[in-house]
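Figure-free illustration: sequence to structure, shown twice.
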Amino acid sequence: MGLMLETTNADLLRRGAAHDNAPDKLPSKRLRTIEEAGKQGVPFTTGLLIGIGETREDRVDTLLAIRDLHKRYGHIQEVIIQNFRVKAGIPMQNWPEPARGDMLRTVAVARLLLPGVNIQAPPNLQCSFL
């Protein structure tokens, strides 16, 4: 089972931010869903989305939240580090995509914080990142 946490930064739901008008992306609800899966012993895939207005600290906080749930329940089997990609016609069509260094740094931090958990950075989303 899987659900992308994306971020723990609820400020990204404010007007004009990446998750504006997307109440299903409320971090507390997503964390609760991931926790409930852990309580039931359901193997779980989750991850974060970088380049949507979050800070480096937000990324670490998101990875720490995932780590804490995994320490408690042992159910996180994979964490996906996904980079934001610009698409025509979306509200963030003029938003900059994350830099290569941001992507590599986030993957490295994920590997340090989540030993024993598979870390994936989907190559079809990367362009020239990796």
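We now fold a second protein in the same way, so the two outputs can be compared directly.
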Amino acid sequence: MDLGIRGKTALVCAASKGLGKGCALALAREGVNLVITARGPQALEATASEIRKHFKIEVKTVVGDITTREGRDAALKAAPAPDILVNNAGGPPPGDFREWDRDAWVKALDANMIAPILMIRAVVDGMIARKFGRVVNITSGAVKAPIAELGLSNGARTGLTGFIAGLSRTTVRHNVTINNLLPGPFETDRLRSNLEFNAKKLGKTAEELRRVRTEANPAGRFGTIEEFGDACAYLCSAQAGFITGQNLLMDGGGYPGTF
């Protein structure tokens, strides 16, 4: 299926590893030129080289932290008028809310709510003027089912979700859609660090906890970054112009709700 976005340009944040990399790979397969960002130059260049090897597209790299003003400025300098924006940033650490002071909350909100909003603000009017734009925010399944030890993430990402619910209804008539992808357990560094955190808390090994979690998931496994990227690519497609303000949960059926 041709997604109708060949030759477009996508700015994919935090794309050197994990879910961001999955999105970058899927968009590259569709012929989308990329500007990818990450904090670590080595992993970023390795991912860029991998993409260039397999796909005949242009790939630019920007080293920087997208949760900072300097990181956002650098990304937008390299991609001032993207057709597609994939917002992504690592989540705040797990813990007990009693341990988090105001600075911890502000840092979480800056990274996982305010930063993506500012990125959207920087590019959305250009998308509207060109009559095409796709924004995908990588948030978390915790927006649907909060995870106790991830309270900072629960709060910040839910705030972003509420903001997007309103904004997305004002841009869609211009063929600019804004949607959220909500990952559950995917094979990423973030998942592995959370397994380690909870294993120590429960007096188990991370491998023991992994077995318990995979067996408890209806799919019997964790997701892959390729599956996640494919979903992102579809939301960025020409065919997805009637989908906006939605929260697509990808968790192997782990969330037990009807709605």
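Summary for the second example: The helical segments are 18-29, 41-54, 69-78, 102-130, 151-171, 189-202, 206-216, 225-235.
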